[in-house]
């Protein structure tokens, strides 16, 4: 058997045994390092055997999000089309950075991005694939800075007359802290705006903070709204945000890393209508759309500001130009870049848009089923978030934070389900389950609910160490 035949055999076994794969590990570094100690790279090894060995190591020591009862943090349960796509991308290995090096790859990505942009109510504009949501969000901040401060390209943040300020809800994503650091605007440039009781960015608080900053001579330049928060799936009020940002000349970014994939469903799309009015969007196909990591998308109608941010000229990269060709190495953060877009193209072409809409809708229905079951009178559970997306945050008045965590740990240890714990608005502890795995079925929801009910009682009878 050669290495590719072995790969095929492993892929089949893997996808046929997903429920047996570990959801939760109790492994330390030592155990893994000692297993790896036989690889001292001193002598060549047989590739077929290596494929088998590495697969065994990965099977054993990975928390497997492909499991149908992984209700966790949007780690994708990969569609096989993405595995085929990543194989092709690795085999042909087109350098997508330059159109001339890889016309096929560039045009496949363009077609895919155009379809996505149109679903969001935008023309193609500046659109490209990124490593993930963090890079897409980073690109948004860079483009906004370039757009808002024309001198920044040459003079940097140092040349600004004051402190630039970016506004985001306390429920927004933490990648912006890193981004503030590495763009040089500084972490203090982030203004965390309180969320309302419904966990949306509070518009009054935003407006007050912006006025205070303007009056103090600071330079408000950008607002980040979240289209599906990581914690609770809440969608910020984009229409109102767009009105506000327009009146104050602020760039409005929509971080839809996981939630914006809902635009594939005609039923959910109306909740995202406001995205047509934003200045930039992040969407991660590697979350709800189930393509292998890493695959993010950045979209913006401000083509010139984005191009200007990343523009360079080299004497060594061939560039025939013209003919509406785009050269990603001059329009995005990456230079040499792998063929990220193929896995989304293959998924969309394989399933069709209706097929994907059906998947998203199926998961949304299961989310509603979970919400209904936990929300039933006398269930003992209390639901803490409201969202049209399949993400449920819930708690029980008789359980402490430590006990909630014990429930989640128990479920994972027993291979019942993987759910997470979090804190809403940084203060309210809860359990959190989302259905972004296309392999999840009604039976899996049933098993989760039964497990939750069982463990909520059991945890009261077992002593939990502090
Ligand atoms: C996951 C997530 C991100 C970060 O995306 P990566 O692909 O993990 O870099 C950003 N924003 C939100 C809302 C997310 O859920």
Bound molecules: pyridoxal-5'-phosphate
Could you estimate the helical fraction of the residues in percent? 40-55%
Report the structural category.
alpha/beta
- Rg over alpha carbons: 24 Å
Low-confidence stretches: none
- How far do the termini sit from each other? 52 Å
Strand content: 5-15%
Average of pLDDT? 96
SSE string, helix = H, strand = E?
A: HHHHHEHHEHEHEHEEEHHEEHEEH
Query: How would you sum up the global shape?
Result: globular
How is the largest sheet built, in terms of strand order?
Answer: 1-7-6-5-4-2-3
How many helices does DSSP assign?
14
What is the tally of beta strands?
Answer: 11
For the sheet with most strands, the description reads: 7 strands, mixed
List keywords for this structure.
466 residues, alpha/beta, 7-stranded mixed beta sheet, 4-stranded antiparallel beta sheet, 14 helices, 12% strand, binds pyridoxal-5'-phosphate
């Amino acid at each position: 058997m050669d290495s590719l035949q072995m790969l095929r055999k492993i892929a089949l076994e893997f996808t046929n045994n997903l429920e047996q794969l570990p959801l939760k590990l109790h492994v330390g570094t030592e155990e893994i390092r000692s297993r790896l100690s036989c690889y001292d790279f001193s002598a060549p090894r047989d590739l077929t055997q290596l494929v088998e060995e590495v697969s065994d190591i990965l099977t054993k020591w990975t928390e497997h999000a492909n499991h149908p009862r992984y209700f966790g943090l949007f780690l994708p349960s990969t569609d096989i089309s993405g595995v085929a796509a990543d194989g092709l991308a690795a085999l042909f290995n087109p350098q997508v950075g330059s159109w001339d090096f890889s016309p096929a790859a560039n045009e496949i990505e363009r077609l895919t991005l155009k379809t996505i942009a149109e679903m969001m109510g935008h023309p193609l504009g500046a659109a490209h694939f990124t490593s993930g949501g963090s890079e897409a969000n980073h690109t948004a901040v860079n483009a906004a800075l370039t757009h808002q401060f024309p001198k920044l390209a040459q003079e940097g943040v140092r040349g600004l007359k004051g402190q630039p300020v970016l506004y985001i809800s306390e429920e927004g994503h933490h990648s912006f802290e890193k981004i503030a650091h590495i763009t040089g605007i500084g972490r203090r440039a982030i203004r965390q705006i309180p969320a309302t009781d419904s966990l949306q960015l509070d518009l009054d608080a935003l407006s007050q903070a912006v006025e205070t900053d303007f009056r103090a001579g600071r330079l408000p330049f950008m607002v980040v709204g979240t289209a599906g928060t990581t914690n609770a799936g809440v969608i910020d009020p984009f229409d109102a945000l767009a009105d506000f940002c327009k009146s104050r000349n602020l760039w409005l970014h929509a971080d839809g890393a996981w939630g914006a994939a809902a635009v594939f469903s005609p039923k959910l799309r109306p909740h995202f209508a406001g995205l047509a009015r934003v200045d930039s969007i992040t969407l991660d196909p590697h979350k709800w759309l189930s393509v292998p990591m890493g695959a993010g998308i950045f979209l913006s109608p401000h083509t010139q500001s984005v191009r200007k941010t990343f523009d360079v000229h080299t004497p060594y990269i061939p560039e025939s130009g013209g003919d509406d060709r785009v050269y990603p190495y001059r329009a995005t953060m990456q230079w040499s870049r792998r063929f990220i877009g193929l896995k989304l193209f293959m998924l969309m072409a394989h399933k069709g848009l209706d097929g994907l809409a059906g998947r998203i809708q199926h998961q949304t229905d299961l989310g509603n089923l979970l919400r209904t079951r936990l929300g039933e009178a006398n269930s003992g559970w209390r639901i803490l978030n409201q969202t049209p997306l399949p993400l449920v945050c819930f708690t029980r008045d008789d359980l402490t934070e430590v006990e909630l965590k014990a429930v989640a740990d128990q479920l994972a240890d027993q291979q019942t389900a993987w759910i997470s714990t979090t804190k809403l608005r940084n203060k309210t502890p809860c359990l959190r389950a989302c259905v972004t795995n296309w392999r999840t079925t009604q039976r899996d929801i049933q098993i989760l609910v039964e497990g939750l009910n069982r463990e909520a009682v059991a945890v009261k009878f077992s002593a939990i160490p502090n």
